[in-house]
Amino acid sequence: MQILIIEDEARAANQLQNLLQTVAFDYSLLGIMDTVEESVDWFQNNKAPDLVFMDIQLADGLSFEIFQNIQVPCPIIFTTAFDQYAIQAFKVNSVDYLLKPIQQTDLELALDKFKRSRQELTISHEKLQNFLADISRGSQREGILVKEGDGFTQLRISDLLYAYSEDSVTFGITAHKRVIIDETLDQLYPTLDANQFFRINRSQIVAKPSILKIERYFNHRLKLGITNARDQEFIVSRPKTNDFKSWLNR
């Protein structure tokens, strides 16, 4: 049995491998991917494995973005600490999941389900795209908690031009100021309106109204002109380029 692990935490990947050995699951590990971009590249250049263990929140975004770029013709078992409503959606889509921290009994049940209904676990590309959109739509909000002096204040989402991560700190930029957001980009992005915000790469999220121009960039990427860009350079990563164009056409 050939498997692929998509997980951005080395410790979690190691724990999963140890559990697989504990339950005597006979497998050959093809690799461990930790980003959406790396995973897309792997699937484009390799034969599909028999099974994939996939975390939801990766280093450069949600793993569902993988399915927006390519077809993944193999069963997936998600490993996640995501909200309960998301887990219910996985059940509807006949995709199994393991809630972190993974328990041995849960892993054994997931593997039994995989073995019994291997053909039925093929992922629906369309369902996953719709699910990603539902996550974004269902968790929209109007304000972001930002640091101000010794305390906090609320920034209106409608004022946010873009957000970026630098030295493990998340910054938000408006027309008039830069603020520190008390969340990581991985926490922030799923709560934003999917029609208004796009994560163009691992460290930047842009608002649609802030985009002034779009230029072709080398290696099939795009370079953006953004309102109040300061010293930032905005490059849409290659795996996200097609999805970014579709997002602009909404």
UniProtKB/TrEMBL annotation:
Q: Where is the HTH LytTR-type domain?
A: 144-250
Provide the transmembrane region boundaries: none
Q: Where is the Response regulatory domain?
A: 2-115
- Asked if the record carries the keyword tRNA-binding, the reply is no
Q: Which UniProt keywords apply?
A: Phosphoprotein
Q: Name one Pfam family in it.
A: Response_reg
Q: Which residues carry this modification: 4-aspartylphosphate?
A: D55
Q: Which Gene3D superfamilies match?
A: 3.40.50.2300, LytTr DNA-binding domain
Q: Does the keyword Phosphoprotein apply?
A: yes
Q: Which PANTHER family does the UniProt entry name for this protein?
A: STAGE 0 SPORULATION PROTEIN A HOMOLOG, TRANSCRIPTIONAL REGULATOR-RELATED
Please identify the protein, giving its name as recorded.
Response regulator
Q: Which organism is it from?
A: Flagellimonas algicola
